[in-house]
Amino acid sequence: MNHAYIITGGNIGNPADQLATATGLLEERCGRVIDRSSLYQTAPWGKPDQENFLNQVLVLETVLSAREVLTEIKIIETQMGRERKEKNGPRVIDVDILFFNHQVINEAGLTVPHPQMALRRFVLEPLNQVAPAYIHPVLYKTITQLLDECPDEGKVKKIES
């Protein structure tokens, strides 16, 4: 059985509902969510002139490969109305694979671990809640260590347990 660490996020419409919908669709299409972080309200990253985001990290148990999970994620995002109009812009839903088991994958369209995660507080805070001792397979540091060293000063606030 594979374990995928996934982050969901959004800032259009009702983000809490969107994240719940995305979680349900991931369970239908990919496997069982075995752990999840609280919801976090986070400052927008890369494009500050937009609404705050809600983010949540999920741990998914799946028989699918990383490529198959990515394919299902793209289907879910499209089904939920995701439009890729501008980089780091507002979105109904965004779903990314952070880790897949302890694999390092560098393929066209699929890079795992997520290459920018160590620089993004909005990823590390919820990930630290569910996997503080997980060792990043490229950087060889725990999530707690990465969070302690993270240069991102964006505001991240836990809003729900």
Sum this structure up briefly.
With 161 residues, this protein is an alpha+beta fold. The chain contains 4 helices and 8 strands; from the N terminus they run E-H-E-E-E-H-E-E-E-H-H-E.
Describe this structure in words.
Strands 1, 2, 3, 4, 5 and 8 form a 6-stranded antiparallel beta sheet that branches. The chain is of the alpha+beta class and 161 residues long. The mean pLDDT is 94. A hairpin with a 2-residue loop joins strand 6 and strand 7 (110-112). It has 4 helices and 8 strands; from the N terminus they run βαβββαβββααβ.
Per DSSP, the total helix count is 4
- CA gyration radius, whole angstroms: 14 Å
Shape: globular
Determine the CATH topology: Alpha-Beta Plaits
Number of strands: 8
Q: How many structural domains are formed by the residues?
A: 1
CATH superfamily: 7,8-Dihydro-6-hydroxymethylpterin-pyrophosphokinase HPPK
How do the helices and strands line up, and which of them pair or pack?
Elements (H helix, E strand, L loop, with lengths): L1 E9 L4 H15 L1 E6 L2 E4 L10 E10 L3 H14 L14 E7 L4 E3 L2 E3 L8 H10 L12 H7 L6 E5 L1
Antiparallel strand pairs: 1-4, 1-5, 2-4, 3-4, 3-8, 6-7
Helix pairs in contact: 1-2, 3-4
